[in-house]
Specification:
This protein has 224 residues and is mainly α. The protein is built from 3 helices and no strands. It has a domain of 70 residues. Helix content is 45%, strand content 0%. The longest helix has 38 residues.
Length: 224
């Protein structure tokens, strides 16, 4: 027969170790987290249930829920109104006099009565200018577009180009161009230089004829 101590444990059994304050604090925190998580899930279920009931019975709610459904309907309408006002505040054009927003492009400002000129349509951009054809590039006779040399069809409309003349590449070269005529002053200088050269040559030839005759006369005058 075993005897029990006042704690309900057998006599002679080891006493349990005491629980520390840190362990108690950790357990309290753990249980509090579980409760908070479950309460959050319960609130989501309540919200989903209320939203589902409202969408299904907002036109004919139960008598005990008529006031709550009416409050929800009124609050949703106020939210939609404030969203529309926010959109107008952010994006609507404004009067250039008082700064009030202009909704649906009115002819006059609804706050100060200033006439609002209609917004002019933007001018169309000028068409791009065509790039001039480089030398030797074929130009289409139909659409006016030019293509790279050597292609057989227009790259703009597909029109075939006429065949190139095979003898054009082997045509004999033409006569060489005559050199430019000298200017009047240059021509006169050339003629003068030519005349001076001719006179010099003539004078030298005359001297050459008289020199041997004089030499021969001097030799004949000497006595034997």
């Amino acid at each position: 027969m075993s005897y029990m101590n006042p704690m309900g444990m057998p006599m002679g059994a080891p006493a349990p170790s005491p629980v520390s304050p840190a362990q108690i604090k950790a357990e309290v925190k753990r249980l509090g987290g579980i409760i908070a998580s479950q309460e959050g899930a319960l609130g989501q279920f309540y919200t989903q249930l209320g939203h589902t009931y409202y969408e299904a019975n907002k036109d004919k709610p139960a008598p005990e829920l008529e006031q709550l459904v009416s409050q929800i309907t009124s609050l949703r309408g106020a939210i939609d109104t404030h969203k529309e006002q926010l959109h107008i505040t952010m994006y609507a054009p404004r009067c250039y006099v008082c700064g009030s927003p202009l909704v649906d492009n009115p002819p006059f400002c609804t706050s100060c009565g200033t006439p609002i000129a209609p917004q002019a349509a933007p001018m169309p951009a000028a068409p791009p200018q065509p790039t001039p054809a480089p030398p030797g590039a074929p130009v289409c006779p139909k659409c006016g577009a030019w293509s790279k040399p050597g292609v057989g069809f227009c790259t703009g409309c597909g029109t075939p180009f006429p065949p190139a003349d095979p003898g054009a590449a082997f045509a004999p070269p033409g006569p060489a161009a005559a050199p430019p005529a000298p200017a009047a002053g240059v021509k006169d200088a050339q003629a003068k230089a030519k005349d001076e050269a001719a006179a010099t040559v003539k004078e030298a030839a005359a001297k050459a004829k008289t020199t041997p005759t004089k030499a021969a006369g001097s030799a004949a005058d000497k006595p034997a």
